[in-house]
Amino acid sequence: MDNRTILDNLGNRDGIDRRGFLKCMAWAGTGVLWVMNGGIARSYGLSQLFSPDRGTMNKDVLPASGDFSFVQISDSHIGFNKAANPDVTATLNAAIAKINALRKSPSFVLHTGDLSHLSRPDEFDSLDQALRDAKTGQVFFVAGEHDVVGDNGKQYLERYGKRTKGNGWYSFDAAGVHFVGLVNVLDLKPGGLGNLGSGQLEWLADDLRDKTASTPIVVFAHVPLWSVFPAWGWGTDDAAQALAYLKRFGSVTVLNGHIHQTLQKIEGNITFHTAMSTAFPQPAPGSAPSPGPMSVPAGKLRSLLGLTSVNFREGNHSLALIDSPLDPGTSPEQPKDDRRSQGDAAPRREGDVDIMNFRFAPRTLTVAVGTKVTWTNRDDVPHAIVSVDKKFSSPVLDTDESFSQTFMDSGAFDYYCSMHPQMTGTILVVAR
Ligand SMILES: [Cu+2]
């Protein structure tokens, strides 16, 4: 079945042919089962644990043993309804069904952020409702940038941050493993990446201080704590400091979401792993003009579902990238700056800025004093504009939504997207 067939089915009377849809979306129901055994973590993609046709468990890849297991799911984006996945609740439910079909229920589920798409109360409600059906002891969360838009995470913290510190970070122990949830989607700096901040780093140093080096550590956060692809914002500015605190431990696993695909890296004693989204895939780093929801033809799906087995390693290994889904033909280089500044579409009239492919076009807009500038979001992910000097800010702008600001003083006004701080622009206001 190709992509067009899916879309035809989606045009049926009831709007959605869920069975056809879920079958084509072979990544639907993704999550990672982690089995800890003697301090060694091993991962199994939920998609690999079940035969795609019958939904039965594939016994060949079942974990043989393990006294303790948990499941990671990520990036549910409840509220998203564009072509890449018109029913994100159905694909989340498919993941939960696979969790519930496991022979042994996981001790808990970790959700590594982007629970919602627009931080709306009804989106959080739907997520909570779906997760109530998961057969597991507890669900732990960390915030994604989509969960903190508009209110700097206030609502998220009220719902999910009851026993957390600061902006929502915390730690807990389970079966001899120390788990640390970190928040790197708040107070993002213009032109920067994910950010932990000094307060959280101090807390982390303190939290780890009394742990012996033989304690297995699992760190989880939304944005990757390693530089996956900084040009797309896929990294964390001050992660090196956090990783320095983790160096002395024999076994460290870092679990992230945000990039909607599986990538793994082993660096010394630290294993990094990013999870797929329960909602939609994103392109491999550098293989498209920008990140964002990707509609996937059925034939391409296998390349997205890489093997997700990871073994802990001991001792100091040199940096190794394993299981990379990068196409050999694509260049991982950062897109050139001139491409960014020119943008993809000419503005329709003086004062218009298009937000497209995670860029402001034009990147620098020159207008006369008194001009009303209007930004319009042409992406199918939300963006939010904020002035570097806090002179203006927009509400969260979903697809095709606009925000206007009239500039009465001359000068250069720098701004960025508070959700994707690598997106920067300038309004240059000149006297008439
Ligand atoms: Cu943005």
Total count of domains: 2
The CATH H-level superfamily of the largest domain is Metallo-dependent phosphatases
Cα distance spanning the termini:
59 Å
Q: What is the CA-atom radius of gyration, in angstroms? A: 22 Å
Side-by-side strand order of the widest sheet:
6-7-8-9-11-10-12
Helicity range: 10-25%
Written overview of the protein:
Helices cover 19% and strands 23% of the residues. With 432 residues, it is an alpha/beta fold. It has 2 domains: 320 residues, Metallo-dependent phosphatases (Purple Acid Phosphatase, chain A, domain 2), CATH 3.60.21.10; 94 residues, Immunoglobulin-like, CATH 2.60.40.420. A 7-stranded mixed sheet has the order 6-7-8-9-11-10-12, with no helix packed on it. Strands 2-1-3-4-5 form a 5-stranded mixed sheet. Strands 14-13-16-18 form a 4-stranded mixed sheet. β10 and β11 form a beta hairpin. α7 packs parallel to α8. The protein binds copper (II) ion. The site of copper (II) ion has 5 residues, from loops.
Brief rundown of the structure:
By secondary structure, this protein is α/β, with parallel strands linked by helices. The protein is 19% helix and 23% strand.
SSE blueprint:
Elements: H1 3-10, H2 18-24, E1 32-37, E2 40-45, H3 46-49, E3 68-73, H4 88-101, E4 108-111, H5 121-131, E5 139-141, H6 154-160, E6 170-174, E7 177-181, H7 198-209, E8 217-220, H8 239-246, E9 252-256, E10 263-267, E11 270-274, H9 301-304, E12 320-322, H10 337-342, E13 352-356, E14 359-361, E15 364-368, E16 371-377, E17 385-387, E18 402-407, E19 411-417, E20 424-430
Bound molecules: copper (II) ion (CU).
